[in-house]
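Encode chain A's predicted structure.
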Amino acid sequence: MKHPLTVISATVLVGVEILVAGVAGGWALAGMFGLGEIGAWVLQAAGAALALYFVVGFWRAAQRNARTAE
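Encoded structure for chain A:
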């Protein structure tokens, strides 16, 4: 892998965007359905967990593509 910093930088950028979207989506859904503060925390945690799952998938795909591009 020639430039691992590129893979790390892209993963951080995409990861932060996905994580914020997951947490914001949980907050919005809890507000829309009137679930209260605890419901918002639960949905935010679920959104964050789902986002982290996608970030790990992105990380693995980026590493695989960086290796094949050499």
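The chain has a mean pLDDT of 92.
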